[in-house]
């Protein structure tokens, strides 16, 4: 037991002296008072390990022992039995003087005292002295010549590894063994995967015979030693948390209780019965482990069982005819794969330690109170003769000379009376309580320690419940109270520089401790500051401030308008102009960055490179040109806006590949602008004159002639569906041109929008360069490009003239009618008027640069209002008057002449058919509206230089056009009118949405977005008002005056056509489908209501009060009710009230007064005022 206090030490010292007194009294009784010698009638009792027993019996027969003792009684019982019986108190009948053990003491059996060999029994306090009497090598044996022997002696095996032994003896499954690390594929080279462990599993040449295991019982130290070596030691000793591993047990029914222990039935069989039981087919259960406390029985069973393998002490193995199995200390692999050496059990291998795997020490433990009985026996055993008998008779391995000398000294000492308990600390101290060792000196003058548990002092801590000292807090940690479980880290900004600190101190100004648990404060670098005290980090000086090295206090601010390019600035020289401004070479502080440039912090005007190819200083920061903008080296701050992707930005005069001149608006020779504004190489086909002008000259006349052939129909065929399809196609072309003309400068449409694809298609319809790329085959000079665009209508007219002449002189085709040809030319001109107008006004469509100058949208390198623009604009004015204003005036004149010449002049009809055929006869003027709309769309870029204004300009025109279309429905086919309204409503929405993508600042973009939302709301309200007006006109009941007026006109119209049925038939053949259906519906209504059975009028009659002229009433009554109604009208008179007020007037009432119509089918009269 452990001594944990001074009182405990006194108690155990008292027990020790009581033992000495008992020993002294016994010795006094045994001594002869006359001779002083021991009486010869002494009896010595020994018991314990069967492994040590051969040695004990060898000494018992020695003459010196026989003379000294009346009897030496040697019993078995195993190491456990020997330990138990020697520790029994005096007077116990099972008490022995010496206990034999083939293992060391367990802590549960006895405590080892401070001399290392005196043991204090746990339960009785009996003290014994431990003597090492020999060394044993546990032998793994098989019967000589048996099947097992032939297997392990096979040339490819020659022995076994510890892994093979474990598999043979263990009660675990193969899976458990593999999980614990055994390579069964190496151990079992020939496993047949049955449930029986067989010798053939190790090798194919081994017999297919079960492996039967034998060994010591659980009371034997040999059993415990062997199990701990070959099995999982923690599992075999059943430590908590480990699965139990034991030898493969036989059925409990085969065991019988005998003297308190379970004994196998083989123990009670004679030799014949044993052989029969162990023979194949006998009663033996394959593979199970049969134990015995008697080694001779184990040996007997091994020799009787041909498949047996077991273990014995070296002494018994030496005396038997069994064969030792060589062992390799490999716990993982089989014998055929191991790299460990095979070692056989022999005296030499045990002595030199080669057979270390099963080597063990053998002990005799003498009760200190029985030394007077055991001394002579043990003295002989360690004599020269006794040590020889260890080898010759006991067949054991004796100890070496050094060990023998120590053992002889212990025999002479006959028990160490000064042996004291080892000062053992408590098994645990609570958390926060540490182990304290107090030195003291026992009664024999030996320095000892007394252990106590005390709360940890401040600055120290202990977390676990182990018996350990409190540990001092490391630097950077503290514990401010006693009994602390753990040391806390100092908070960031506070430090503890010493071990065992009870508290942390705060860092000073401009010093910091970043991490928890810091042991020292660090100084802030220049540009950083830490204030007030106790900071966990140094804050960097913000942008626009700095702190120099060694200065106290905080960061200093830069002058107004200046900042630093980085935080943690260290010098006043680090102050530069803030982002968005630059330092001018003219001085005066920092100036705002121009639009289209990005000024990083520290930008300077003198940092610009001087020219192309000249690199700026690596430290120079200058304003950078934004993408989409352009500047010159001689004026790097004068910014021009580019169109398209030709200006990547960066340095001045930077253009994309093969772009050049101002705003990167021109391409190199052999290159042409794409729709994205970049320059692309001209393909070989475009470099020739094949596409332009050869291709138009080749394919133009056939196309013109084909259009001519399909344009000879007269008015009687204009109402056919084919004409409606042509109108739809015309509307599509006009709409795409409208989209193309609405391309805005400074609008970035997102890729997911449907507008880019539509705009690209529309732009192709507007831009001849995109289709035929004449610049690849013709001179690319700006004036030439502009001139060919202006004269495009003339080239078109010349192409028509060329076609007319070719057809005229050709004998293969019919001569072209001049009036029809003029109609085809007019139709083409009218269809592409928006494109033509775009070409004419292009020179006046300028956009503004950030520097205040303007460039032509189509020619960004050409500046407006200066240089070449002035003469070119004069040419553009002429083109505008000739090809835009004059055609509109011409259309007005034609529309004015239509009522006069259209009915009777066929040539007139054929020449102006392109104006009339798409619309109803009374809406021919809608062609002028279309021209004005096209001109309005193109003038947006003339009068509005900003994208937002252009959008609002165009949206207003589209919105007004949509409302007019909804109001007048001018197209000859109703579906075309409906599609026209829908198309322009969609265009209004998309054009308004473009306002959200205008290149503006964030604040302006919000304003533009609000304006766009407002425009959409107005557009919605206007369209809703127009739609509501149409619905109202159809649903609102007409006023009486309108009814009568419409009735008179209707009667006159039908009466006129009733007299001329041929003219009515001709009219029906010429009317469009919707008008024809309208007229037919009107005729059906008149026909239905003219009969007395009409659905609406029925048998309606005229009341007494009529305020119409007699002629008017007569005509109305005759049409409704015949002669009787006429007679009633003739007899009508003016009421007295009215007569009084009309004295002096004519007898007949004026037209347009009051008439009462009574509906005979209604109970109530309905009066209509006229």
In spatial order, strands of the major sheet run 2-1-3-17-6-5-4
Tally of DSSP β-strands: 48
What's the domain count? Answer: 5
Overall 3D shape: elongated
**Rg computed from alpha carbons, rounded to a whole number of angstroms:** 63 Å
Uncertain spans: 1-39, 1099-1170
> Strand content of the residues, in percent?
15-25%
> In which range does the helix fraction lie?
40-55%
Terminal CA distance reads: 134 Å
Write the layout of secondary structure elements.
Elements: H1 6-30, E1 43-48, H2 53-60, H3 63-68, E2 71-77, H4 78-86, E3 98-101, E4 110-112, E5 118-121, E6 127-137, E7 139-143, H5 147-152, E8 160-161, H6 162-169, H7 174-179, H8 184-187, E9 212-216, H9 221-230, H10 233-236, E10 255-258, E11 261-264, H11 271-278, E12 289-292, H12 295-304, E13 308-312, H13 314-319, E14 322-324, E15 327-328, E16 342-343, H14 347-351, E17 359-367, H15 371-381, H16 384-392, H17 401-413, E18 433-441, E19 447-455, E20 460-461, E21 471-472, E22 477-478, E23 488-489, E24 494-495, E25 505-506, E26 511-512, E27 522-523, E28 528-529, E29 539-540, E30 545-546, E31 556-557, E32 562-564, E33 575-577, E34 581-583, E35 590-592, E36 597-598, E37 624-625, E38 629-632, E39 635-641, E40 659-660, E41 666-667, E42 671-673, E43 679-681, H18 684-687, H19 690-709, H20 721-741, H21 755-766, H22 768-772, H23 782-790, H24 792-809, H25 818-831, H26 833-841, E44 846-848, E45 854-856, H27 869-901, H28 906-911, H29 913-916, H30 926-943, H31 947-968, H32 974-993, H33 1002-1035, H34 1040-1059, H35 1061-1070, ...
Parallel strand pairs: 1-2, 1-3, 8-15, 9-12, 9-13
Antiparallel strand pairs: 3-17, 4-5, 5-6, 6-17, 7-13, 7-14, 10-11, 15-16, 18-19, 20-21, 22-23, 24-25, 26-27, 28-29, 30-31, 32-33, 34-35, 36-37, 38-39, 40-41, 42-43, 44-45, 46-47, 47-48
Helix pairs in contact: 19-24, 20-21, 20-32, 23-27, 24-25, 26-27, 26-30, 27-30, 30-31, 31-32, 31-33, 32-33, 37-38
């Amino acid at each position: 037991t452990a001594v944990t206090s001074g009182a405990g030490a006194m108690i155990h010292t008292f027990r020790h002296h009581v033992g000495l007194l008992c020993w002294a009294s016994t010795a006094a009784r045994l001594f002869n008072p006359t001779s002083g010698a021991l009486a010869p009638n002494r009896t010595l009792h020994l018991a314990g390990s069967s492994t040590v027993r051969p040695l004990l019996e060898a000494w018992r027969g020695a003459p010196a022992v026989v003379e000294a003792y009346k009897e030496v009684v040697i019993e078995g019982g195993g190491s456990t039995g020997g330990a138990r019986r020697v520790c029994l108190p005096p007077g116990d009948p099972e008490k022995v003087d010496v206990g034999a053990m083939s293992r060391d003491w367990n802590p549960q059996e006895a405590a080892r005292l401070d001399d290392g060999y005196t043991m204090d029994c746990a339960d009785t306090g009996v003290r014994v002295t431990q003597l090492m009497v020999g060394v044993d090598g546990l032998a793994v044996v098989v019967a000589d010549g048996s099947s097992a022997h032939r297997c392990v002696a096979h040339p490819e095996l020659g022995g076994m590894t510890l892994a093979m032994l474990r598999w043979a003896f263990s009660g675990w499954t193969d899976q458990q063994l593999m999980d614990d690390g055994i390579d069964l594929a190496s151990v079992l080279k020939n496993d047949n995967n049955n449930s029986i462990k067989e010798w053939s599993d190790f090798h194919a040449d081994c017999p297919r015979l079960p492996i039967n295991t034998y060994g010591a019982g659980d009371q034997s130290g040999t059993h415990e030693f062997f199990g701990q070596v070959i099995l999982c030691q923690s599992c075999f000793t059943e430590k908590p948390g480990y699965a139990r591993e034991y030898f493969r047990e036989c059925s409990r029914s085969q065991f019988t209780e005998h003297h308190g222990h379970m004994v196998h039935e083989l123990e009670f069989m004679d030799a014949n019965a044993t052989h029969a039981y162990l023979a194949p087919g006998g009663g033996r259960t394959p593979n199970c482990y049969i134990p015995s406390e008697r080694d001779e029985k184990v040996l007997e069973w091994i020799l009787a069982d041909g498949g047996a393998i077991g273990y014995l002490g070296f002494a018994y193995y030496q005396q038997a005819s069994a064969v030792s199995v060589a062992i390799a200390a490999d716990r993982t692999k089989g014998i055929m794969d191991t790299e460990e050496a095979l070692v056989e059990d022999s005296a030499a291998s045990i002595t030199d330690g080669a057979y270390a795997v099963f080597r063990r020490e053998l002990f005799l433990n003498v009760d200190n109170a029985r030394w007077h009985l055991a001394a002579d026996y043990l003295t002989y055993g360690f004599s020269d003769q006794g040590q020889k008998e260890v080898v010759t008779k006991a067949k054991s391995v004796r100890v070496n000379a050094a060990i023998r000398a120590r053992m002889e000294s212990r025999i002479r000492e006959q028990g160490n009376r000064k042996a004291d308990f080892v000062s053992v600390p408590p098994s645990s101290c609570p958390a926060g309580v540490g182990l304290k060792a107090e030195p003291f000196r026992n009664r024999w003058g030996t320095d000892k320690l007394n252990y106590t548990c005390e709360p940890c002092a401040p600055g120290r801590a202990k977390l676990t419940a182990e018996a350990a000292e409190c540990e001092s807090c490391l630097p950077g940690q503290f514990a401010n109270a006693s009994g602390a479980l753990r040391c806390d880290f100092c908070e960031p900004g506070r430090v503890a520089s010493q071990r065992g600190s009870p508290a942390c101190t705060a860092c000073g100004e401009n010093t910091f401790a970043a991490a928890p648990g810091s042991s020292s404060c660090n100084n802030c670098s220049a540009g950083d500051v830490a204030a007030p005290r106790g900071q966990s980090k140094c804050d960097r000086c913000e942008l626009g401030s700095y702190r120099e090295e060694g200065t106290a206090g905080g960061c200093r601010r830069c002058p107004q308008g200046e900042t630093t390019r980085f935080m943690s600035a260290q010098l006043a020289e680090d102050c530069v102009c803030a982002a968005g401004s630059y330092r001018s070479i003219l001085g005066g502080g920092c100036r705002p960055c121009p639009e289209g440039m990005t000024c990083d912090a520290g930008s300077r005007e003198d940092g610009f490179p001087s020219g192309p190819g000249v690199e700026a200083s690596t430290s120079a920061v200058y304003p950078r040109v934004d993408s989409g903008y352009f500047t010159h080296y001689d004026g790097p701050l004068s910014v021009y806006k580019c169109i398209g992707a030709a200006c990547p930005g960066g340095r001045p005069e930077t253009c994309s590949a093969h772009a050049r001149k101002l705003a990167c608006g021109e391409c190199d020779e052999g290159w042409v602008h794409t729709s994205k504004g970049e320059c692309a190489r001209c393909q070989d086909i475009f470099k020739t004159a094949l596409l332009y002008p050869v291709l138009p000259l080749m394919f133009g006349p056939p196309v013109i002639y084909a259009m001519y052939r399909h344009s000879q129909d007269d008015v009687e065929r204009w109402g056919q569906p084919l004409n409606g399809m042509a109108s739809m196609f015309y509307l599509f072309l006009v709409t795409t041109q409208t989209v193309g003309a609405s391309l805005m400068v400074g609008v970035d449409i997102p890729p997911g929008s449907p507008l880019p694809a539509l705009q690209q298609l529309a732009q192709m319809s507007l831009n001849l360069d995109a289709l035929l790329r004449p610049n690849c085959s013709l001179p690319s000079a700006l004036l030439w490009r502009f001139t060919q665009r202006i004269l495009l209508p003339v080239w078109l007219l010349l192409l028509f003239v060329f076609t007319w002449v070719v057809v005229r002189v050709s004998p293969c085709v019919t001569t072209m009618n001049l009036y029809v040809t003029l109609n085809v030319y007019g139709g083409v001109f009218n269809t592409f008027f928006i494109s033509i107008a775009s070409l004419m006004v292009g020179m006046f469509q300028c956009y503004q640069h950030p520097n205040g100058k303007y460039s032509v949208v189509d020619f960004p390198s050409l500046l407006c209002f200066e240089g070449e623009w002035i003469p070119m604009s004069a040419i553009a004015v002429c083109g505008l008057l000739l090809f835009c204003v004059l055609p509109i005036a011409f259309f007005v004149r034609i529309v004015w002449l239509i009522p006069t010449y259209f009915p009777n002049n066929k040539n007139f009809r054929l020449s102006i058919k392109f104006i009339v055929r798409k619309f109803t006869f009374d809406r021919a003027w809608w062609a002028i509206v279309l021209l004005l709309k096209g001109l309005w769309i193109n003038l947006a870029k003339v009068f509005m230089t900003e994208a937002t204004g252009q959008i609002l300009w165009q949206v207003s025109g589209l919105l007004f056009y949509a409302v007019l279309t909804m109001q007048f429905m001018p197209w000859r086919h109703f579906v075309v009118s409906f599609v026209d309204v829908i198309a322009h409503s969609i265009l209004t929405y998309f054009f308004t949405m473009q306002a959200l993508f205008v290149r503006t600042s964030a604040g302006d973009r919000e304003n533009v977005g609000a304006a766009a939302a407002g425009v959409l709301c107005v557009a919605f309200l206007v369209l809703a008002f127009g739609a509501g007006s149409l619905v109202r006109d159809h649903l609102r009941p007409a006023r009486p005056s309108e009814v009568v007026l419409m009735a008179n006109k209707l009667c006159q119209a039908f009466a006129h056509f009733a007299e001329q049925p041929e003219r009515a038939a001709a009219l029906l053949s010429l009317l469009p489908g919707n008008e024809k259906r309208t007229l037919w519906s009107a005729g059906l209504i008149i026909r239905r209501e003219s009969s007395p059975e009409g659905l609406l009028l029925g048998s309606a009659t005229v009341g007494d009060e009529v305020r119409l002229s007699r002629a008017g009433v007569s005509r109305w009554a005759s049409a409704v009710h015949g002669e009787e109604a006429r007679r009633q009208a003739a007899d009508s008179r003016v009421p007295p009230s009215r007569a009084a007020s009309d004295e002096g007037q004519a007898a007949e009432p004026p037209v347009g007064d009051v008439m009462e119509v009574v509906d005979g089918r209604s109970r109530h009269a309905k009066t209509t005022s006229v």
